[in-house]
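Researcher: Please predict.
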Amino acid sequence: MIEVVVSRLGLDSSTQSYVVILQEKDGQRLLPIWIGQPEAESIVMQMHNIKRVRPLTHDLCKSLIVGLGGALQKVHITRVEKNTYYAELHIARNGDVVQVDARPSDSIAIALRLSAPIFASETLLSDVQVEESTESSFDPEALRPSSELNAEQLKEYLERLRPEDFGKFNL
């Protein structure tokens, strides 16, 4: 397993799906994973410290893990089968470690909330080239409103993202 970090989040214009790009820590290899809108919103909100008045599902998962005396040791993104990625949450409690099957998108959102490392199977990482766009309209500060962002505003922001905002992917 190779440690990875969340590098980027964007919208794949060809599929109209969100993509989270994991990058090898201290390396160049990437792992793009196509994810749903709720998970994309949850990840981007955590990356930019945007808080909701009520907890999202991933905040609830964090509260459950901590409230039950557990600690998220790490996340493993283990394999892909028939275009479906698989992951595991490794939760320690009372000297035991429990592996919980989970979707990578949920695992990433929870790991970000609990500052847990994310690992990917070496076979999943590839040398995808990322060309940096010379013009980028991506502005993380745009996510920092003076008051809380509501769900519709966040959805509109995510829908306005273009691949050029994060770079181009040459597979």
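Model: DSSP finds four helices and nine strands in the chain.
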